[in-house]
TrEMBL record:
GO terms for biological process: tRNA 5'-leader removal. The chain crosses the membrane at residues 6-27. Keywords: Membrane, Transmembrane, Transmembrane helix, tRNA processing. Gene3D superfamilies: Ribonuclease P, Pop5 subunit. This is RNase P component 2.
Amino acid sequence: MELHYAVAWIALLVSVASLAISIAVLFRVYSYVRVLVEEFGKSLVAVKKHRRVKRYILVRFLCIDNQDYNTLENEIKNSVYSFLGPILKSRCSVDIISYRPESRRAIIRVRGEAVCVTYTLLALSIQHLRKNMRNCITIPVRTTGLISRLRRRYLKR
């Protein structure tokens, strides 16, 4: 019977020792994690914000019926903003700044982070597949940072 008590005491001592070792390791790991979190927080604060850019996109419309400027602008804005979602919508601004109905071309200004231009081009390219704009297909022709290039070269035709 005393052998059973001895084995039980040894098992108890081993479990207490393993618990003490686990607690010591836990405090050491906690201190390492705390230092890493502090360094990560400092790096997040130190990272500079993305530069806000302004780009101009020349688009060509293929429409079934002739639409007026306001209807077309609202449909394009709603389509692009619904594609961007609420987070990118707050970071990006999309405006039609020039529209020539006779040549069916327009210049769209995109302001925001650089990713806004990429997502706006994607939204313009696939918006005819969505149910927002069934009457018009928008074809992005050229993207540039200077509006004078687009006006001089493409809108005079």
